[in-house]
Write a structure and sequence with these properties.
Layout: H1 2-6, H2 35-55, H3 66-83, H4 92-103, E1 107-117, E2 122-131, E3 138-145, E4 151-158
Antiparallel strand pairs: 1-2, 2-3, 3-4
């Protein structure tokens, strides 16, 4: 029986979620990192076009018109990725400050979540906050543009749980 308990499989947290290994605040990655794969896609598309242009007339049959179509699709996706690689100027701490100003009450508990909106995936902070009373009397939801710090939407209501 003791041998079975030693070999038993147990669930465990991944290392990056283990609170005992906490080394500092988490930094959200910037959306401008999307430029790296976009440029790789563009480079692969260029290579496909070069291969198609130089080899598609050969009789070996290794390079077909599929290379041209793949190049077009990769180039289109690359341009989309480049257009959605916004550089964020507002981090989660600054978003909490802007949300506190927007709701008009002293904030107790709050949380920020990064979301994307629109066709070009513009980064936006979604901040949910409660007033500082115990129990909180008000709650608010604020959407803050992560590029220019514009308040996209602000909803404030009485807390139905109090």
């Amino acid at each position: 029986m003791a041998a079975d308990s030693v070999n038993e499989i147990r669930d465990s947290l991944p290392d990056d979620l283990n609170v005992t290994g906490f080394v500092g605040p988490y930094m959200f990655p910037d959306n401008s990192r999307r430029r790296i794969p976009a440029l790789l896609y563009l480079g692969i598309a260029a290579m496909c076009v070069v291969l198609w242009a130089t080899q598609h007339t050969n009789e070996n049959g290794l390079v077909s018109d599929g290379f041209l179509w793949a190049a077009i699709l990769l180039a289109v996706f690359s341009l989309y990725s480049l257009s959605s690689s916004w550089r964020m100027t507002v981090d989660e701490k600054l978003a909490l400050v802007y949300a506190t100003r927007a709701v008009g009450f002293a904030v107790g508990h709050a949380s920020a979540q990064q979301v994307w909106r629109g066709f070009r995936s513009r980064p936006t902070w979604r901040v949910f906050c409660y007033s500082e009373q115990e129990p909180p009397l008000q709650r608010g939801l604020v959407l803050i543009d992560a590029i220019d710090a514009r308040i996209v939407q602000c909803l404030v209501e009485a807390n139905p749980d109090s």
